[in-house]
Amino acid sequence: MSTHAPRAPEGPTTMPTPPPPLAGTTTGPAALRPLIDTVLTALHDGAHRRDGPLPAGGPDAVTPRMRTATHPLIPDHGTGPHNALRTLVTALTEGAADPADPLCTAHLHTPPLALATAADLAASALNPSMDSWDQAPAASALEADTTAALAAEIYPHQPTPDALITTGGTEANQLALLLARERNGPVQTICAANAHHSITRAAWLLGLPQPVVIPAPTGVMDLAALDEALTRHDHPLLVTATAGTTDTGQIDPLADIADLCATHGAELHIDAAYGGPLLFSPTHRGKVHGLDRAHSVTLDLHKLGWQPAPASILAVPHRHHLDPLHHQAPYLNADDDTEAGLPDLLGRSLRTTRRPDALKIAVTLQALGRTGIADLIDRTLTTAHHLADLIAKTPTLDLYDRPTISTVLFRPTDADDTTVATIRRTLLTRGQAVLGRAHTDNRLWLKATLLNPHTTPDHLRTLLDLVNQLANDLAEGNTPR
């Protein structure tokens, strides 16, 4: 009796479907080229469908439209790469708030440069993981050189300054407090009422005492109050100053604060996430004079650096200040590998897996140079001053103050706070303009944070006309739709 199983009947052989192509190696670029073309077409078509700085209708219109376009998100059988890219990218673009639109001015939400975005594509295709040298041989060298160069801009007179790349000002500020704690023990942080919320959050996360918050009656740290707080509180002390507040863009008196810290033996961290890139402008770098006297500095390049987020650094004057971040994981930085010359990357971040964000930064720095970056900064700040001039000349609008960087606060004359809030939300719902809000001087203000170097005076006049028209409608009792 046969012990073999019966043979299956002969028939046509079905070849298994090959897996989708990858982005890397020598074959990746050929696979990417048609996909990128589909993405670019979808970006174009979605922007035309939106036709403005953000989609009209508010959440009640945007959310169901997005869900209808993308349902089901996980089908039983895939729709194919081009269809999926076309569908989702078009829908996302149609429903996006577009920082490249000159009327999208609410936040520190920069329109990224095309060249930086292209560099980010290369970073995604190559996918270096910045937690060990054998995952990122060239990228680790590029990051080391880029961070050292940026740190030298902040600390030009120090022999070995360095910086870490972070996801933003929040992470950088948290690292600054962590390093201060590791140097000094449980430091008492002192900040002003204008400080970014991440300072208080970082103290909470790190188990540090709640920050002492001193007044900022004119929008910047009060020096007399700082002197009193430094005198009254026990050491160790860490003062956190701000170079570019989120509400008004004002800059604390950095040099005077550094003097007080030196007198009282306190350390100084400066959150220059917004204002730090002014260093690249010969015209405006004086506004951040004193930055080099801080024990650490936060600087974002996804604000006045026109990078796709994230692109932020925490800089320190001496490389050894980063030593407390060293961490051992034998599969990533074994001692014998390090002794043999392989760079140890784990101390370069609190994260393990992370992207090579240095690439887009380095491409931008090399492509534009100091003069090109300075030109972008100068153009943007000039535009902010032009908007302030237009507001000051418009009798139906009140200007809060001349802009320090590129933030301009204004409001309709004689309007109450409810009207100001209604104007902002109505512009959002109509998809006409994106303005922020700031509460200062005991009133609510509309906030325009200008970061688009392509904004023209006509764009600014259109923005003010929209605000004035809505204010008139509300004053006449017309309910906006």
Automatic annotation (TrEMBL):
<dbReference type="InterPro" id="IPR015424">
    <property type="entry name" value="PyrdxlP-dep_Trfase"/>
</dbReference>
<keyword id="KW-0663">Pyridoxal phosphate</keyword>
<dbReference type="GO" id="GO:0030170">
    <property type="term" value="F:pyridoxal phosphate binding"/>
</dbReference>
<keyword id="KW-0210">Decarboxylase</keyword>
<dbReference type="GO" id="GO:0005737">
    <property type="term" value="C:cytoplasm"/>
</dbReference>
<dbReference type="GO" id="GO:0019752">
    <property type="term" value="P:carboxylic acid metabolic process"/>
</dbReference>
<comment type="similarity">
    <text>Belongs to the group II decarboxylase family.</text>
</comment>
<keyword id="KW-0456">Lyase</keyword>
<dbReference type="GO" id="GO:0004058">
    <property type="term" value="F:aromatic-L-amino-acid decarboxylase activity"/>
</dbReference>
<dbReference type="InterPro" id="IPR015421">
    <property type="entry name" value="PyrdxlP-dep_Trfase_major"/>
</dbReference>
<dbReference type="Pfam" id="PF00282">
    <property type="entry name" value="Pyridoxal_deC"/>
</dbReference>
<dbReference type="InterPro" id="IPR015422">
    <property type="entry name" value="PyrdxlP-dep_Trfase_small"/>
</dbReference>
<feature type="modified residue" description="N6-(pyridoxal phosphate)lysine">
    <location>
        <position position="303"/>
    </location>
</feature>
<dbReference type="InterPro" id="IPR002129">
    <property type="entry name" value="PyrdxlP-dep_de-COase"/>
</dbReference>
<protein>
    <submittedName>
        <fullName>L-2,4-diaminobutyrate decarboxylase</fullName>
    </submittedName>
</protein>
<feature type="region of interest" description="Disordered">
    <location>
        <begin position="1"/>
        <end position="29"/>
    </location>
</feature>
